[in-house]
Structure formats: C-alpha cells, structure tokens
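User: I want to check something. If I give you two sequences, will you return the structure for each one separately, not as a complex?

Assistant: Yes, each is folded on its own. Here is the first sequence with its structure:
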Amino acid sequence: MLSLDHARTILDVVLKTGTEKGFKPLAAVVLDARGAMKAFAAQDGTSLKRGEIARGKADGALAMGLGSRAIAKMAAERPAFVAAATHAVGGSLVPVPGGVLILQGGEVVGAVGVSGDLSDNDEICAVAGIEAAGLKADTGA
C-alpha cells in the first residue's frame, strides 16, 4: 500500500531534486494504485497547466501498466493505438517520460507524474522521489 507518508516523501524529494539540479519549476502528483491523488504540489513559477500534464503522465502509466517512457515509444511506433487509448481513458494520458510506476514487493502501488522541465529531467526527479521513499521505480525503459 502507498501510504501518505510515502507520498509526502516522494513529493518532497521530487521538488527538492529539481531545485538542486537547477531544473525549471515542477509540478508533481502522486497517485495510489486506484488512481486516487495522494499528494500534489506545484512550485512557484510553473506554467498554468503543468499539474494537469503531470496528472496525465501518472494516469497514463497506471492505465497502461507501463512507465510513460514505454508509452512514448509506443506512441512513436503505433500512434493510432495511443490516440485511441488516450480517448478511452478520457484524455488523461500524456505519452512522454515523467510518468513512473511505483512498485512495492513487485506490485504496482501507484504512480508519480512530474512536469515542468524536459521530460527526461522530470523522470529523473520522479525516480529520485520514489527511491527516497524506499520503493522501486518503473520508468518503462
């Protein structure tokens, strides 16, 4: 189970990592395995819809059972399928890195979505947060 303490640790470390690395301001969301929001924050200076983009990365990872890096590859190879899947989940699927599954004991317990900098940098922050909480990250690589 993804606890609130896990979610807070993940969120704090995501934002701290971005700041320490000099990334642009980030928005981050932590979802449990059901897709319910456990934690969200947006740093000062994020653009208007960064929270929604972060949520779409995390939602997409949960919906597809894949880190969003794998979904990005799938979108390049099979764009019609990813477009259809995006429609099937109500539009909340953003097929770029930064949506990372959270694993505990081999089971998916949630997902993190991060948006604000380059997608690869968003993913770096998500992984740092998950690992800081003592959990395993699955980026879809």
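And separately, the second sequence with its own structure:
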Amino acid sequence: MNTTPTPYPIGTPGTPWGDAERAEWLSRQTRQRSYESEVLSVIERLRSRFDVEAYGHLAYGADRYSLMAIRSRDWRDDRPIVLVTGGVHGYETSGVHGALQFVEQRAADYTDRINLLVAPCVSPWAYERIHRWNANAVDPNRSFRDDGQAEEAAALMRLVAPIRDQAQLHIDLHETTDTDESEFRPALAARDGKPFEPGGIPDGFYLVDDRESPQPEFQQAVIEAVEQVTHIAPADDKGELFGTPVAARGVIEYPIQQMGLCTNLTRAPYRTTTEVYPDSPRATTEQCNAAQVAAVCAAIDYALAHR
C-alpha cells in the first residue's frame, strides 16, 4: 500500500519556495471572516472599563489593520504585571475569543491586584483568512527574536519591551487543529523544501512549557483548572504529544528562545502556551473559549500565590 503523502500543490518537492511560489500561495488566500466585526467591535465595548490602544499597524496590499491592546486602567508599580496574548496564529480562534472573553467576564476579578496587558489578536490578517502565517508566508510564532521576519511579532515586541523584565506572568493562547496536519504542516514542509512527515493530532488540551526554565507545578495548576472545563490530551503510544515527549500530564516542553516563540517575549518566571483542540467531538466552541479563560485565571491565581 502506497502511503506517500500527496505533494503540496505549490512548489517543487525538495525545493524551497521563491517569490513565485509565495505569490501563488498568497493568491489562494481568501478573506473568510471580519476582524472589524468579530474582534474590534468587542474591544470597543471594553473602552469604558479598560484603556485601549493601537500598538501598531499592518499593511498587506490594500488591507490595513490596527493592532490593538487592552490595558488595566489603574496601573500601579507595586502590582505584578500579567501579559495575555492570543491570535498569534490567526486561525486559532479560541485564542482570540478566549482572551476577549477573559477580559469581558473575569478581568475585573483581578484588576485591583494586577497590572493587566492583553493583545487578543496579534495576527489579524491571518485571523480573517483562518491561516497560520502572515501574508508573506511567515509564521509569527517563530519570529519573537531580534532577527524575526514577522511585523506582527515585531510590533508586539515593541509594545512589551518596557515591561519585559518586570512581568510576572505571560500566557499565550493557542489551538492545535486538524488543519495543522492536513494543511499547515504540509505547507511548511513545501515552503522550506523539506519532506512532510505525517503525525497525529492530540485529542484534548495541553500546555507548552519552556524547556530551558520549566515550571512544572505552575503548569499542573493550569492543567487541573482546565480539566474542570474540557478533557486533557493523553500521551500517544510513544509517550508523546504532537511528536514531543510528555514532560508531565498534559505538558510538553519546547526551547522557546531558540524557536522564537511568543512566550520568549518576557523574562516572566511563569510562562505557558495553551493548546486547545477545537476539532474534538468532545468539545464545543463554548468549551474551547471557556478552557482558555480557565487557563488564564488559574495562571494568574498561581502567580499571585507564588510571588
């Protein structure tokens, strides 16, 4: 039986993309939802309770986007700083709406104890096209370093720079979806001229810790809270999640600085990346958003208790 994956429809197998292939890829991307009506409208509702600011602007052809951040109004130097980011990968919907739902429904529970900064949709072009990359076929979540190539990442780095050394917590809200395996990983292999090696998608929620500075008790506190909302992804028969060995139940570790991941933004002692699985038959859209909110609340609770 032939199990060789079908070649990606753009480019020549084994040859990295050039300008022509990137242009062909871009021509296939279509706007499928509205950043303005689904994200900016929610942020506007929050202006009465929070400070809202544009921290950057994107221009891709005729498309223009304002990058928006939400900040607690009574910012005080004696309070710990909490950073929440979502939509670094625009297609990961609960990352965006989980962040907004947290601000709308739960942030008031904490704003007298923390300084809160939220960037709910880091990649609006990709949000509208339900894609992982930006319009230049660059993954923003590999660009959080000085030589990063994504303007989305660079703008967020500029926003966070003043608090980089003071932050107590950074939680970055993501999803792992079936399209990671059917579209985004094959596209990545094709773009880079590498062979695509099929894998499996974990069924359930998991976290990504920093391999160089792990915080296992913190990660487990988040896992235990989220488990009240949705199921935790079990390890596969190799003891792995998404091709990475499990460090603890529901937790894997990546070298976040080496990879240029978003949680490399600060030197916060508590950092984690959530991974919700929206394609599970055991999870609804509401559960996915609620899982993100539960993760943020548990992370803040832990950080406040362990200052």
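Because they were folded independently, the notes below concern the second chain alone. The first strand starts at residue 51 and ends at 60. The beta strands are 51-60, 63-71, 81-86, 115-119, 167-175, 206-210, 240-241, 244-248, 251-254, 270-276.
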